[in-house]
Amino acid sequence: MNYTKPDTQLRMMKQFEDVVNTTFVxxxxxxxxxxxxxxxxxxxxCLENFDPDDPSQxxxxxxxxxxxxxxxxxxxxxxxxxxxxxGLANKNIKSVLSDDECSPFEGGICRxxxxxxxxxxxxxxxxxxxxxxxxxxxxxxxxxxxxxxxxKWREYTGGRGGILVEENTATPFKEDxxxxxxxxxxxxxxxxxxxxSSSPTMYATNLYTHEDTVEMIRQxxxxxxxxxTHCFMTGIPFDFWEQYLTVDxxxxxxxxxxVGIGFVMATVFLxxxxxxxxxxxxxxxxxxASLCGGILIAVTNILCLVPVIGISLLAxxxxxxFSNMAFVLSVGFATE
Length: 336
Description:
About 40% of the residues lie in helices and about 5% in strands. The chain is mostly helical. Helix 1 runs antiparallel to helix 5, helix 7 (about 245-275) packs antiparallel against helix 8 and helix 7 runs parallel beside helix 9 (about 320-335). It starts with 5 loop residues before the first helix and ends with a helix.
């Protein structure tokens, strides 16, 4: 994934917001997604300079100067704003004089033009009254500059996103000049290009029934696994309940396979069990008899399998990997 492209950054944020807006996922602010927080850090909306650890060191992206061999040598980790054309969420902004109840969520990271700095509007030839929304992105950076800027962002903000780092590159944390064992500053060197990153922890909600959990997987998969920018969801609901998305087709496949294999094995077994020395019987009759026996056994398997599955479903036995295995075992007992 090429994170230096603005469309990749916007698609990641859109995927995150689409998943959060599904029925069974709890609300989470977009700023907790690392690419969203990083993009804000590169703009004038960065808050790190209000309470820096070191008053003599500014900590926002615009203050970080990249020095390297790339074409963007000597440029700052400065982002810009782009018109919101894909429906990303705006930040919930309430007037301090408003009597409305404040929202527990900030929402997105995009800003309506009326809430933006004039300098940012001038840079994109926009006005505060155009009624549009704008989102932070960075563009035209090399992988070297992105690596430098992400490392500075992680160092000053603590970073997030589970970005992979080089081993043994973090500085030990010291308090009063003494190292605190096992604690390190977030100034590791990241692996570049960034091969993998993670979103913040999401929480499922309103999962009262088995079908609720399955529907939650279906809804989130539509925006994540099946999307152009691939991502995948993990967690207990996905690790266990994902089997239920295909359990019906798996049961059908197992049933057909077990009956078919039973027919083949029974036919072969009967063929070799019939007396090969009997001249009156003959090879043709032997084959026909074996096939008839195999068919009878296959029909017996079906007559066993159908009521076993049917009675189980009537008794509210859920279709799972365990029940499917039990159904297939019934074919073995019927064959015997």
